């Protein structure tokens, strides 16, 4: 993403893409690392020059998630799940991650990492990560997938600007099993709690019904949890 940010500062246009065969310092949300095997995955950063209200910025991550999901589905015939706000999941393993950084007024860098042809992961990641090849037994053409992801990303970004955030929020809710009725554990960085997901609010933030009432998650890590008893009126 640093290289893309430098190019953006030099005036490179909307839609410019930087692709790496390997990342030596791949990052995710909240400073987490992103494992990037040489030649195994698709690691890209895209310059986006967009004009929309500041409250639509969190929804851009969701829009790019939809774009990546669509590209994989259309090209690889694989249906992934969307885990709010920025992960693609395949058979309970993390397949892809998305991060957006604002680098200037109206200029953003979108980083998208997809596990494509990896055969294995380091031991600590095996329980939580997967790749297209590991799940289907097929090897995929990364250049074709790159083209599809870029095309869909630009389309969804334009849709967010032209139609507003409501359409993205509704589509994300329809194409993600994590948005409603899912037992989850949430780590906000300041505290951890569990509950049942209860949809997205008007800003695209995740609502979680807990034993003590409704929580709105503005940012944080969401993971599946054991079945949690629904709160009762007495709990509230």
Explain the layout of strands and helices.
Layout: H1 2-9, E1 17-20, E2 41-49, H2 57-76, E3 81-83, E4 87-90, E5 93-104, E6 107-115, H3 132-136, H4 142-163, H5 165-174, E7 180-187, E8 192-200, E9 206-210, E10 213-217, E11 221-224
Antiparallel strand pairs: 1-2, 2-6, 3-4, 4-5, 5-6, 7-8, 7-11, 8-9, 9-10
Helix pairs in contact: 2-4, 2-5, 4-5
Named CATH topology of the largest domain: BirA Bifunctional Protein, domain 2
Low-confidence stretches: 23-34, 232-236
Q: What share of the residues does DSSP label as strand, in percent? A: 25-35%
Number of domains: 2
Topology as a string of helices (H) and strands (E): HEEHEEEEHHHEEEEE
Per DSSP, the total helix count is: 5
User: What is the straight-line distance between the termini?
Assistant: 45 Å
Outline the biggest β-sheet: 6 strands, antiparallel
- Name the CATH class of the largest domain: Alpha Beta
């Amino acid at each position: 993403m640093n290289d893309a940010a430098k190019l953006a500062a030099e005036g490179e246009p909307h839609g410019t893409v930087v692709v790496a065969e390997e990342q030596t310092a791949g990052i995710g949300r909240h400073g987490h690392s992103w494992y990037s095997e040489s030649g195994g995955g698709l690691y890209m950063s895209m310059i986006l020059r967009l004009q929309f209200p500041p409250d639509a910025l969190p929804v851009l991550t969701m829009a790019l998630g939809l774009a990546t999901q669509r590209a994989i589905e259309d090209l690889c015939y694989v249906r992934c799940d969307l885990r709010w706000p920025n992960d693609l999941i395949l058979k309970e393993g993390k397949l892809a991650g998305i991060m957006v950084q604002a680098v200037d007024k109206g200029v953003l860098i979108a980083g998208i990492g997809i596990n494509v042809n990896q055969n294995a992961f380091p031991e600590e990641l095996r329980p939580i990560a997967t790749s297209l090849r590991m799940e289907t037994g097929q090897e995929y053409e990364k250049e074709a997938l790159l083209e599809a992801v870029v095309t869909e990303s630009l389309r969804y970004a334009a849709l967010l600007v032209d139609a507003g955030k409501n359409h993205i929020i509704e589509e994300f809710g329809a194409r993600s099993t994590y948005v409603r009725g899912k037992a989850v554990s949430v780590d906000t960085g300041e505290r951890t709690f569990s509950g049942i997901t209860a949809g997205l609010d008007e800003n695209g933030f995740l609502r979680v019904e807990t034993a003590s009432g409704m929580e709105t998650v503005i940012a944080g890590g969401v993971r599946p949890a054991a079945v949690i008893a629904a709160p009762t009126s007495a709990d509230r």
